[in-house]
Design goal:
Layout: E1 10-15, H1 19-29, E2 34-39, E3 52-55, H2 58-63, E4 68-71, H3 75-87, E5 91-94, H4 103-116, E6 120-121, H5 130-136, E7 143-150, H6 156-161, H7 167-170, E8 173-178, H8 180-186, H9 192-201, E9 206-212, E10 219-227, E11 230-238, E12 240-241, E13 244-248, H10 250-263
Parallel strand pairs: 1-2, 1-4, 2-3, 4-5, 5-6, 7-9
Antiparallel strand pairs: 7-10, 8-9, 10-11, 12-13
This protein binds nicotinamide-adenine-dinucleotide.
Keywords: NAD, NADP, Oxidoreductase, Pyridine nucleotide biosynthesis
GO biological process, one term: NAD+ biosynthetic process
Pfam families: Asp_DH_C, NAD_binding_3
Length: about 270
């Protein structure tokens, strides 16, 4: 009897080792058959543990020949790494999709995917129901509203700049109302969800509201979908990541789930 073929090992590159990156590493290494190559600005004193190795830079990442790369760093890191990975035929699962508010970068990514057959995977991140939004948006009449609601403490500097600090202690204050690209351009660290929704629904059909609300208990995301196929509403009140309270803990899980699905037989 011949020996059974060894199970494949998926080689996953990871950019960023902050709140999301560390959770992604822990979750992915707990799955059998995954090896991690991590690009980070500082390697922890004890290293990363079994199954993971440090990669110095973009060149080292490409030389490591990953099957896919997870970006969990920043919009700037997305802009620096994603085009090179896609050009090399490596799919990328990205957290910092707010970077696509830059229409030129978005267009470049699309061209690279067309040319090489590689794919940018946009996970649901801090929200969900993206499949429902994309289905409803096949009808051009569909309109989607995304409302980001956070306590005033999450927007101290922005409220002060607008002279709204006092008003925001008394009731909800609108910091922004408009399209998803402008929202992500103004608040690149906070509006990835709006971009994720707009990518599914279409930028021309998506409007974004950013509210500072003293009654908000956490980072809440509301999505309203209205159109000929029905009206729906979704609300996500996420637990913060203990390492970065501005980040929803579910985001790392979403990146890992999207990566596992990407490698899996069921899409
Ligand atoms: N898609 C979503 O729904 C969603 C939700 C939350 C956060 N995010 C985004 O995910 C990203 C990571 O969030 P986080 O909470 O882990 O942030 P974090 O600040 O805790 O960690 C980011 C890490 O990436 C590193 N980094 C930044 N640029 C880098 C580069 N060029 N090369 C290597 N390392 C680099 C930083 O040093 C830091 O350690 C952010 O861009 C954030 O806006 C997306």
């Amino acid at each position: 009897m011949s020996a059974a073929a060894a199970d494949p090992v998926w080689r996953v590159g990871l950019i960023g080792y902050g709140a999301i990156g560390q959770s992604v590493a822990r979750l992915l290494l707990a799955q059998p058959g995954h090896a991690l190559g991590i690009v980070t600005r500082s390697v922890p004193a004890g290293g990363f543990g079994p199954g993971a190795e440090a990669l110095g830079d973009l060149e080292a990442l490409l030389d490591w020949r990953p099957d896919a790369v997870i970006e969990a760093a920043s919009a700037d890191a997305f802009a620096a790494f994603a085009p090179a990975c896609l050009a090399a035929g490596i799919d990328i699962v990205a957290a910092s999709v707010g970077a696509l508010q830059d229409a030129a970068l978005h267009e470049r990514i699309k061209c690279l995917c067309d040319r090489t057959g590689s794919r940018l995977v946009v996970p649901s991140g801090a929200v969900g129901g993206i499949d429902h939004i994309a289905a409803a948006a096949l009808r051009p009449e569909t309109r989607v509203t995304y409302i980001s609601r956070k306590p005033p403490a999450a927007w101290v500097a922005e409220l002060a700049t607008l002279g709204l600090s006092e008003a925001a202690q008394k009731g909800p204050v609108t910091l922004f109302e408009g399209d998803a690209r402008e929202a992500a351009a103004r608040y690149p660290k906070n509006l990835n969800a709006g971009l994720t929704i707009a990518l599914a629904a279409g930028f021309d059909r998506t409007s974004v509201q950013v509210l500072a609300d003293p009654a908000a208990t956490g980072n809440t995301h509301e999505i309203r979908i209205e159109g000929p196929l029905g009206d729906s509403a979704m609300r996500f009140c996420n637990a913060p990541d203990p390492a970065n309270p501005k980040t929803s803990a579910i985001t790392a899980y979403s990146l890992v789930a999207a990566t596992l699905r990407h490698f899996g037989t069921l899409q």
